[in-house]
Protein backbone atom coordinates (compact mmCIF):
# COMPACT_ATOMS: atom_id res chain seq x y z
CA UNK A 1 0.00 0.00 0.00
CA UNK A 2 1.38 3.36 -1.06
CA UNK A 3 1.73 5.94 1.70
CA UNK A 4 -0.40 9.06 1.20
CA UNK A 5 1.41 12.16 0.00
CA UNK A 6 1.83 15.17 2.24
CA UNK A 7 -0.66 17.07 0.13
CA UNK A 8 -3.22 14.28 0.46
CA UNK A 9 -2.78 14.27 4.24
CA UNK A 10 -3.28 18.03 4.40
CA UNK A 11 -6.41 17.75 2.28
CA UNK A 12 -7.73 15.03 4.59
CA UNK A 13 -6.99 17.23 7.59
CA UNK A 14 -8.95 20.08 6.03
CA UNK A 15 -11.80 17.62 5.57
CA UNK A 16 -11.80 16.95 9.31
CA UNK A 17 -9.44 13.99 9.68
CA UNK A 18 -7.21 15.11 12.55
CA UNK A 19 -5.11 11.94 12.43
CA UNK A 20 -3.77 13.06 9.05
CA UNK A 21 -2.25 16.18 10.60
CA UNK A 22 -0.67 14.07 13.33
CA UNK A 23 0.90 11.91 10.64
CA UNK A 24 2.30 15.01 8.91
CA UNK A 25 3.89 16.06 12.19
CA UNK A 26 5.42 12.62 12.80
CA UNK A 27 6.68 12.50 9.23
CA UNK A 28 8.43 15.88 9.17
CA UNK A 29 9.10 17.01 12.74
CA UNK A 30 12.45 15.17 13.17
CA UNK A 31 14.01 16.62 10.01
CA UNK A 32 12.51 20.05 10.66
CA UNK A 33 14.00 19.97 14.16
CA UNK A 34 17.46 19.22 12.76
CA UNK A 35 17.07 22.01 10.22
CA UNK A 36 16.10 24.56 12.87
CA UNK A 37 18.77 23.29 15.26
CA UNK A 38 21.42 24.17 12.71
CA UNK A 39 20.02 27.70 12.68
CA UNK A 40 19.77 28.23 16.42
CA UNK A 41 22.40 25.96 17.95
CA UNK A 42 19.92 25.32 20.76
CA UNK A 43 17.83 22.15 21.02
CA UNK A 44 15.15 23.62 23.27
CA UNK A 45 14.77 26.65 21.01
CA UNK A 46 14.51 24.30 18.02
CA UNK A 47 11.71 22.38 19.71
CA UNK A 48 9.82 25.61 20.34
CA UNK A 49 10.26 26.72 16.74
CA UNK A 50 9.04 23.36 15.43
CA UNK A 51 5.91 23.63 17.57
CA UNK A 52 5.30 27.20 16.39
CA UNK A 53 5.81 26.10 12.80
CA UNK A 54 3.21 23.36 12.94
CA UNK A 55 0.84 25.69 14.76
CA UNK A 56 1.11 28.11 11.86
CA UNK A 57 0.60 25.25 9.40
CA UNK A 58 -2.59 24.42 11.29
CA UNK A 59 -3.77 28.03 11.23
CA UNK A 60 -2.89 28.63 7.58
CA UNK A 61 -3.75 25.23 6.12
CA UNK A 62 -6.83 26.50 4.30
CA UNK A 63 -4.76 29.07 2.42
CA UNK A 64 -2.24 26.54 1.10
CA UNK A 65 -2.41 25.70 -2.60
CA UNK A 66 -2.67 21.91 -2.63
CA UNK A 67 -1.26 21.78 -6.17
CA UNK A 68 2.11 22.76 -4.68
CA UNK A 69 4.48 20.63 -2.59
CA UNK A 70 3.91 20.77 1.16
CA UNK A 71 7.49 20.31 2.39
CA UNK A 72 9.04 23.51 0.94
CA UNK A 73 6.12 25.46 2.43
CA UNK A 74 6.72 23.84 5.81
CA UNK A 75 10.43 24.66 5.72
CA UNK A 76 9.71 28.22 4.61
CA UNK A 77 7.64 28.70 7.75
CA UNK A 78 10.30 26.98 9.85
CA UNK A 79 13.07 29.19 8.45
CA UNK A 80 11.05 32.33 9.13
CA UNK A 81 10.30 31.22 12.69
CA UNK A 82 13.98 30.44 13.26
CA UNK A 83 14.97 33.90 12.03
CA UNK A 84 12.37 35.46 14.33
CA UNK A 85 13.84 33.56 17.25
CA UNK A 86 17.37 34.70 16.46
CA UNK A 87 16.27 38.31 16.20
CA UNK A 88 14.60 38.02 19.59
CA UNK A 89 17.64 36.65 21.35
CA UNK A 90 19.90 39.09 19.46
CA UNK A 91 22.82 36.80 18.96
CA UNK A 92 24.76 35.46 16.01
CA UNK A 93 23.46 32.28 14.54
CA UNK A 94 25.40 29.16 15.41
CA UNK A 95 25.27 26.40 12.84
CA UNK A 96 26.31 22.93 13.98
CA UNK A 97 27.69 21.00 11.01
CA UNK A 98 28.17 17.49 12.38
CA UNK A 99 29.02 15.81 9.09
CA UNK A 100 32.57 14.59 8.56
CA UNK A 101 34.52 17.10 6.51
CA UNK A 102 37.49 15.89 4.51
CA UNK A 103 39.86 17.31 1.94
CA UNK A 104 38.18 17.99 -1.37
CA UNK A 105 39.93 18.90 -4.59
CA UNK A 106 42.87 21.25 -4.50
CA UNK A 107 40.75 24.26 -5.40
CA UNK A 108 38.52 23.69 -2.38
CA UNK A 109 35.47 24.64 -4.40
CA UNK A 110 33.25 21.59 -3.82
CA UNK A 111 31.65 21.55 -0.40
CA UNK A 112 30.04 18.17 -1.08
CA UNK A 113 33.53 16.68 -1.57
CA UNK A 114 34.57 18.12 1.77
CA UNK A 115 31.52 16.57 3.40
CA UNK A 116 32.13 13.19 1.81
CA UNK A 117 35.79 12.81 2.67
CA UNK A 118 36.84 10.24 5.24
CA UNK A 119 40.03 11.99 6.32
CA UNK A 120 38.57 14.94 8.15
CA UNK A 121 41.90 16.22 9.40
CA UNK A 122 45.49 15.12 8.81
CA UNK A 123 45.67 13.85 12.41
CA UNK A 124 44.17 10.35 12.44
CA UNK A 125 44.20 10.20 16.21
CA UNK A 126 41.77 13.09 16.55
CA UNK A 127 38.48 12.09 18.13
CA UNK A 128 35.18 12.58 16.33
CA UNK A 129 33.98 15.24 18.75
CA UNK A 130 37.17 17.24 18.27
CA UNK A 131 36.67 17.02 14.53
CA UNK A 132 33.14 18.30 14.90
CA UNK A 133 34.31 21.23 17.02
CA UNK A 134 36.94 22.01 14.41
CA UNK A 135 34.38 22.05 11.58
CA UNK A 136 31.85 23.94 13.70
CA UNK A 137 34.41 26.62 14.41
CA UNK A 138 34.98 27.12 10.70
CA UNK A 139 31.28 27.14 9.87
CA UNK A 140 30.49 29.70 12.56
CA UNK A 141 32.74 32.12 10.69
CA UNK A 142 30.83 31.66 7.42
CA UNK A 143 28.23 34.44 6.94
CA UNK A 144 24.73 33.36 7.90
CA UNK A 145 23.18 34.01 4.49
CA UNK A 146 25.74 31.66 2.93
CA UNK A 147 25.55 28.83 5.44
CA UNK A 148 21.75 28.93 5.19
CA UNK A 149 21.75 27.78 1.58
CA UNK A 150 24.38 25.13 2.36
CA UNK A 151 22.16 23.66 5.06
CA UNK A 152 19.21 23.44 2.69
CA UNK A 153 21.18 22.12 -0.28
CA UNK A 154 23.52 19.58 1.29
CA UNK A 155 21.83 18.48 4.50
CA UNK A 156 18.20 18.56 3.39
CA UNK A 157 18.68 18.04 -0.35
CA UNK A 158 16.26 20.71 -1.51
CA UNK A 159 16.38 21.65 -5.18
CA UNK A 160 17.63 25.13 -6.04
CA UNK A 161 14.11 26.25 -6.94
CA UNK A 162 12.82 25.10 -3.55
CA UNK A 163 15.69 26.82 -1.73
CA UNK A 164 14.79 30.03 -3.55
CA UNK A 165 11.21 29.67 -2.30
CA UNK A 166 12.22 28.89 1.28
CA UNK A 167 14.80 31.67 1.62
CA UNK A 168 12.86 34.16 -0.48
CA UNK A 169 15.56 34.96 -3.05
CA UNK A 170 15.85 34.57 -6.83
CA UNK A 171 17.05 31.28 -8.27
CA UNK A 172 20.21 32.89 -9.61
CA UNK A 173 21.02 34.23 -6.16
CA UNK A 174 20.75 30.74 -4.68
CA UNK A 175 23.38 29.49 -7.13
CA UNK A 176 25.71 32.42 -6.55
CA UNK A 177 25.40 32.13 -2.77
CA UNK A 178 26.18 28.42 -2.89
CA UNK A 179 29.25 29.11 -4.99
CA UNK A 180 30.36 31.84 -2.60
CA UNK A 181 29.67 29.64 0.44
CA UNK A 182 31.67 26.75 -0.97
CA UNK A 183 34.58 29.03 -1.75
CA UNK A 184 34.39 30.66 1.69
CA UNK A 185 34.31 27.36 3.53
CA UNK A 186 37.10 25.87 1.42
CA UNK A 187 39.40 28.84 2.00
CA UNK A 188 38.80 28.96 5.75
CA UNK A 189 39.13 25.18 6.03
CA UNK A 190 42.54 25.20 4.32
CA UNK A 191 43.72 28.15 6.42
CA UNK A 192 42.66 26.39 9.63
CA UNK A 193 44.41 23.17 8.59
CA UNK A 194 47.59 25.08 7.75
CA UNK A 195 47.51 26.85 11.11
CA UNK A 196 46.96 23.56 12.97
CA UNK A 197 49.87 21.93 11.17
CA UNK A 198 52.06 24.95 11.94
CA UNK A 199 51.13 24.80 15.63
CA UNK A 200 52.07 21.12 15.79
CA UNK A 201 55.51 21.62 14.28
CATH architecture of the largest domain: Orthogonal Bundle
Strand-pairing-aware structural class: mainly alpha
Helix and strand sequence: HHHHHHHHH
Coarse morphology:
elongated
Helix content: 55-70%
User: What is Rg?
Assistant: 19 Å
Share in β-strands: under 5%
Secondary structure: number of strands: 0
User: Ranges with pLDDT <50 over ≥5 residues?
Assistant: 91-125
CATH homologous superfamily of the largest domain?
Winged helix-like DNA-binding domain superfamily/Winged helix DNA-binding domain
Mean pLDDT: 79
> N-to-C terminal Cα separation, in Å?
61 Å
The name CATH uses for the topology of the largest domain is: Arc Repressor Mutant, subunit A
User: CATH first level of the largest domain: which class?
Assistant: Mainly Alpha
Number of helices: 9
Tally the structural domains.
Answer: 2
Main sheet specs: none
Sequence-ordered SSE layout with sheet pairings:
Layout: H1 6-14, H2 18-40, H3 43-60, H4 70-89, H5 111-116, H6 128-139, H7 144-155, H8 160-167, H9 171-200
Helix pairs in contact: 1-2, 2-3, 2-4, 3-4, 4-8, 7-9, 8-9
Amino acid sequence: MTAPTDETLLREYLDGKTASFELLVRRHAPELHQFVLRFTGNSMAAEDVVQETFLQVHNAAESFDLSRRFKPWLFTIGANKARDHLRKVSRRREVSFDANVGGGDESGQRFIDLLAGEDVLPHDEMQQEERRRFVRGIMESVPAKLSEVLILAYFHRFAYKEIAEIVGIPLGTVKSRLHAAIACFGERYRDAIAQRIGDDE
